[in-house]
Amino acid sequence: MKALVYRGPGKKQLEEMPKPALRDATDAVVRMVKTTICGTDLHILKGDLPTVAAGRILGHEGIGIIEEAGAGVSRFHKGDRVLISCITACAKCDYCRHGMPSHCEAGGWILGNTIDGTQAEFVRIPFADTSLYPIPENADDDAMVMLSDILPTGYECGVLNGSVKPGDTVAIVGAGPVGLAALLTAQFYTPAKIIVIDLDDNRLAVAGQFGATTVVNSTDGLAVAKVMALTAGQGVDVAIEAVGMAATFELCQEIVGAGGHIANIGVHGASVTLHLEKLWSQNITITTRLVDAVTTPLLLKTVMAGKLRPKQLITHHFALTDILKAYDTFGNAGRERALKVILTNE
Amino acid sequence: MKALVYRGPGKKQLEEMPKPALRDATDAVVRMVKTTICGTDLHILKGDLPTVAAGRILGHEGIGIIEEAGAGVSRFHKGDRVLISCITACAKCDYCRHGMPSHCEAGGWILGNTIDGTQAEFVRIPFADTSLYPIPENADDDAMVMLSDILPTGYECGVLNGSVKPGDTVAIVGAGPVGLAALLTAQFYTPAKIIVIDLDDNRLAVAGQFGATTVVNSTDGLAVAKVMALTAGQGVDVAIEAVGMAATFELCQEIVGAGGHIANIGVHGASVTLHLEKLWSQNITITTRLVDAVTTPLLLKTVMAGKLRPKQLITHHFALTDILKAYDTFGNAGRERALKVILTNE
Amino acid sequence: MKALVYRGPGKKQLEEMPKPALRDATDAVVRMVKTTICGTDLHILKGDLPTVAAGRILGHEGIGIIEEAGAGVSRFHKGDRVLISCITACAKCDYCRHGMPSHCEAGGWILGNTIDGTQAEFVRIPFADTSLYPIPENADDDAMVMLSDILPTGYECGVLNGSVKPGDTVAIVGAGPVGLAALLTAQFYTPAKIIVIDLDDNRLAVAGQFGATTVVNSTDGLAVAKVMALTAGQGVDVAIEAVGMAATFELCQEIVGAGGHIANIGVHGASVTLHLEKLWSQNITITTRLVDAVTTPLLLKTVMAGKLRPKQLITHHFALTDILKAYDTFGNAGRERALKVILTNE
Amino acid sequence: MKALVYRGPGKKQLEEMPKPALRDATDAVVRMVKTTICGTDLHILKGDLPTVAAGRILGHEGIGIIEEAGAGVSRFHKGDRVLISCITACAKCDYCRHGMPSHCEAGGWILGNTIDGTQAEFVRIPFADTSLYPIPENADDDAMVMLSDILPTGYECGVLNGSVKPGDTVAIVGAGPVGLAALLTAQFYTPAKIIVIDLDDNRLAVAGQFGATTVVNSTDGLAVAKVMALTAGQGVDVAIEAVGMAATFELCQEIVGAGGHIANIGVHGASVTLHLEKLWSQNITITTRLVDAVTTPLLLKTVMAGKLRPKQLITHHFALTDILKAYDTFGNAGRERALKVILTNE
C-alpha cells in the first residue's frame, strides 16, 4: 500500500509499504477514507520528536472503514465506518480509568509516533473498541476528520482547562488550526468577548469569521496594551496559548487578570520564564495537557446537532497520493492561506 | 500606645505612637490581646515590599477586643472578642463577591502593609463586619491567632488549590510555619502519604510529629530520586511549594506526576524557569494564590471540634513590649527552633 | 405616590401611599422607571403566601434612578440608574458570604413580600450597595427589567442546578416566562437538544422561536413516550421543572435518564411523590433553589455582549397607572398570549 | 462445588453445583477465598428483586485466587490474589467511559443477580480486567472483603454524593453496615460533627466507637428536635439515608438545612413523599446512586496507608460450608449484634 514514511529529519517519502495485519485480538485494521496533516507532523519532520524513528508511517487523524477486526473487538465489525482517535486507549490502566488516556500505559499518542499511522491506505488500530468511534449516519466525512485531534485538543486543553464561562473575556494567542479549534469550542460557553491575537492578518480575518469579537495583530508589540484597554485594565479571565513559544506564553502572563486561567495548548520545545515574582499573589491557574480525546462523543453530538461546524477549518483537498503536495501547502500555511487539508484515499 | 514601627529597610523600632481612631463608619478599633510575627514581616524589613512605607506599624495577625465600633458596624460591639483576618474585605466589590477578597478593591492585604497593623496596643480595622470574626466561647486564644493568616494560607493556597484527595500522595517542599500549616490541613482530606522536604532536620522532626509519613532532607541533592522511589517512579499527586525560591519550585516540577498539581504558596522575589518542554504534555495544574481567608469560618469549626490543633505551631511566647526580642528569635528560626511566636499585650 | 397594594386574598388596589424614606444608613430610595409582574404576585393574590400581609405594596423587579442614598451607601449616588435585584443581600451573614443570599439573615426575598415592593413610584431598597447593580450605558431598559428575577431564576435554579453541558439533551417542562428564561440561558452551554413540553400551543410556538429543538404538547398524555423516542429510550440528561405541580414533577421523574438531573424551579404548594423505588439506583440528582441572583453580573455581561436577548420575553407594555389592566392581561396569559409585561412610571 | 443457591422467595440451600467455566475470552474463573453476606441478599430472599431467578448462586462480594483467565484477560494470571468488585464493568460502553459502570450495558450489578455469584467455591467473573483488583502484598484478607461493596457504597452514595466537607455537620440515618461504612469514610473529610441516628442502642454504641460525635436513638420520636438543638436550629449540612424506608427519608427532609444535601443510599421498595412545598426554596440537593465502585483504588490506598480500618465492620466468622448458620446470624443482626460476617472457603 501507499504510505507517507518519515525517513529522518527533513526527509519524507510516499512509499509502497506492506499492508498492516492484526497483531493482537483487540486490534482492528482500518482502510483509510480520509486523513489530514497535523502541525505535530511538521515538528516530527524537523526532528523535534525523538520518539519517532525513521521508517515510521506518519499521521494520527482520519476516518475509515473496518477492514478486519480482531477476535477481542466487540463493538466494531468489518464494514463499519469509524472515526480514528489520535489517542489510543486500553481502557484498563489507571490513567484510562481516571479519564486520562493521553497517558495510557499501553496507548496514548502512539499513532504515527511509536507505531505506524494514518497517512496510508490502511492502518492498524490497537484497542479498537475504545480508540475508534462509530460515525453517525448523515455525518459529513470531512467534518469527522476534524474530530480525531484538532477539535478535542482545542476544546480539552484550551477551553475546558481554561474553564471558560458565560460572560468571560477570553484571549486566544495563535490563530492556527488549534487556536481556531479553541475559538470554535470556546463559544460552547458563551463568553462575552473572545480576543484572538496573531501575527497574520489572513488568519485573523478567519478568526473574525469564526466568532472572535476582536482580533489583534501583535506585530507592533502593542498586544498587551490593546488587551488591557479592552478589559478596563483588568486583564482577561482566560488566556489560551496555542503557539508553543516563549514569547506567546509570556504574552499570556501579561494579559491574564487576577483569578484568571492560562491554558497551554502549544507544544513547547524549550523552557519558558514564569513570572512568579508577579504572579505568586495573582490567584492564577496554569494548565498543560496532552489531549485525552475523552470529549469526542460530546463533540460528535454537538456536530450532529449543527452546533459546531468543523468544516470551516478545512481549506484544501488532495488525493492521498498527492500527499507530498499537501505537505507543501500545509507547510507554507501563511502563503497558502491553509488551515487543515483533507487527503482522500480514492 | 506602644507599636512596632518599620523605619525603612533593616530598621524597626518599638515606639510610642498615637492610638488609632475610627475613620469610616464601617471601622472598628480593636485593643490587641495577642499578635504574632509573619515571615512576610521579615521580607518587609529586608525592603522587599515597596508598598510598605517607612513609619508603618507592622503586623496583620492577632486577636483582640472591640474598643470602639463605627456607626456602620452591625455585627460587633464594644467588648466583643474578635479574630482579626489578615485580609480586609469590603464585601461589596466584584472580587469580594466572587470569593476573592485578597484582591478587594478597597481592602485585601492592607494591615501592616498600606495601613497600620496589629503589632501594637490598638489597631484600626476597616470593614470590621467582614474582616473580623467572633471568637467562640471556650476557644484558646493562642490557637485563634493561628487562624489570622498561617492556617488559611496553608489551607487555601496549598491544600485547596492543590486539590488534595483521599489516598493521594502529597509532597510539601518547605517545613516552615506555612508548610506545616499545609501539612496540618492536608490531613483534612486523608491523603495516603505526605512527604515533607526541607534542609533542616529539626523542622523535619517537627513535620514527623505533625503527621508527615516520610521526611526528606534535601541537603544531599537526592530529594527527587527519593520521592520517585517512594512513588514507584510516578511522581506525586500534589506538590506544595512553601518556600518561594527558584530551586524549590524546580523541585516541585521534577516530582509532580502526570495529571498532578503544583500549588505555590511561597512569596517569590524573582522569576523561575517553567519546563514546558517537558510539562506541556503532562496534564499539570499550577496554581498561585494570595490567601483570601474565606475559609476562616470552616477552620474555626474544625478547631472547635478538636480536629485541628493550631497550638502545635507555637514555640515561643513574649510580652508585646519584648517584640524586638521576639523578632530576634523568629528571625533566627533555625538556631532558635522557632516556628510561630505569640506576643501578648499584657 | 401611586402603588399597587395587596389588600388580602383576591384583593389588590392602585392606591395613593406615602413615599418611602430612608430607614437605615445602608438604604437607598429608588424612583422606579420600569417594573413588571411576576407569577409569584399572582400566587400572593391567591393568598398562597402567608408571609405577605395585607397592606403590602407588591413587586420585586424593576429598574430605577437613585432618589436618595443613605450615609452608608458607597457605591451608588443620587441620579444613578440601577437594576433592582429581587434578592436583597446584606453581604455580611454566613449565607451571603457563601453565595446564598436567598437565605440572607436580614434580606433574601423581602421586596413585595415582607417589605414594600417595586410596583410603585418609589421603593426603599435595604443594603443598596449589594442589592442594586449599576445599569451599563447603552443598555436597553426593558431588557434590564428581565434581569431582576426571571433570568437569574431560570439560569440559576434551572440551568446551573441542572448542570447543562455541551451535547446534552435537556427537557424543560413548562413554557411560561421562567421556563422560557431557562430555555434562553440553557443555550449558554450549547446542549444538542432542548425539548420544551407544555399544554399551550402558543407558548410552544414561542419556545420554538427561542431555540427549542423540539416542542411537545403534553395534552395527549404521550409526552413521556415522545421524549423516550427522541432519546433512544435513555431519557434526558437534564429535566427542568418550571411549573410547580405534582404532575409536572412526576413527568420529570419519568423522563430523566440514569445519571441525570432534575432541576426544580417551580413554586410548589403541595408535596409530591418521589419514586425512590425506581430512582434509588438511577444515580439521579434533584435540586431545589430559591434564586440567589448571584449571577446578575454574569447575565449583564452576556446581555451587553448581545449573547442573550431578554426583550424576547416581553409581550406587553403599560403605564404604571394602568397596572390593574396589566394584571388582567398577565393573569390571563394564555388568552392574551402574554409572557412578561412592562410597566413604565411615566 | 458447594454453593448457596436461591430457590425462590424464602428458600435457600447449600447445594452441590457445577464448577463454572470460562465463557468469554475476557472472563476469569476465581477460586473464592472469602466472601460475605449483604443486606441485599436478604432482600432477594424475601422475593423483592424479580431480576433474581430461582437457581441463582447468590453473593457479590469477596476475594479469591485466579483459577483460570481467558485469552482476552491481560492484567491477571492464574494464581493472582484478587478483590472482586460488586460491579462488573465492560469498560467500553458509554456508561463505563463516563465513570458510571453501575449502569454498564453488559455488566453493572450482575453477580448473584443475573449471573451466579460469589457464595460458592468458584465464581466466573466477566470483564475480569476491569472488574477485579489485585490485592496488595501485606493486605489483610478480611479487610479486603469490605472493599467489594460496603465501603464503596457508603463512600460513593453517601459521602461523595453528600459532598461532605471539613467543618460540616453530617447526620447518618441508619447504623447498619452501610451506614457505618458511610460513617468511617465521612471522616476522610474531617466534618466537625457526625450525628448517627438509629433505633438500636447496640448499633449506636458501635457508631460511637467508629467516630460518631453524637448518637441519637430515634425510638422516642424526638430525633428531629435533638438534631435541631445540636445545630442551633439550622439543620445539618448533609443527611445520609442508609435505611431505605419512607420514615427515614422523611427524617432526612426534616433535618437538612438550607443549602444542604440529602444523599440516599437505602434500597427503597416504595415511593416516598417529597415535601417540595417546603423544600422548593431551600436550595437542597438530593442524590441517589447505585454504587459504581470506581473508588475502589482510592479506598485500597487509604486502607494500605492505615487511614481506614475496614475490619471494624466484621463481627463474625464462619466456614463457607456453614453459610446457612451465617445467614441466620446476619438475618438476626439485632439479636446477634452482627454487622458483617466473613465466610472462608477452607
Would you kindly provide a brief summary of this structure?
In chain A, 27% of the residues lie in helices and 25% in strands. Chain A contains 13 helices and 16 strands.
Question: What is this structure's SSE topology?
Answer:
Four copies of one chain form a homotetramer.
Chain A: E1 2-6, E2 12-16, E3 28-36, H1 39-46, E4 62-69, E5 81-84, H2 94-97, E6 122-125, H3 128-131, E7 132-134, H4 141-145, H5 150-160, E8 169-173, H6 177-186, E9 193-198, H7 201-209, E10 214-217, H8 223-230, E11 236-241, H9 246-255, E12 256-264, E13 272-274, H10 276-279, E14 285-287, H11 296-304, E15 314-319, H12 323-331, H13 333-336, E16 340-344
Helix pairs in contact in A: 5-6
The major beta sheet of chain A can be summarized as:
7 strands, mixed
Quaternary state, please? homotetramer
Mean pLDDT of chain A: 97
Q: Roughly how much helix do the residues of chain A carry, as a percent range?
A: 25-40%
Radius of gyration of chain A: 20 Å
Shape call of chain A:
globular
Query: Could you tell me the number of beta strands of chain A?
Result: 16
Based on secondary structure, the structural category of chain A is alpha/beta
Low-confidence stretches of chain A: none
Distance between the termini of chain A: 13 Å
Order of helices and strands of chain A: EEEHEEHEHEHHEHEHEHEHEEHEHEHHE
Q: Into which percentage range does the β-strand content of chain A fall?
A: 15-25%
The largest chain-to-chain contact, stated as pair and per-chain residue counts, equals: A-B, 35 and 35 residues
State the helix count of chain A.
13
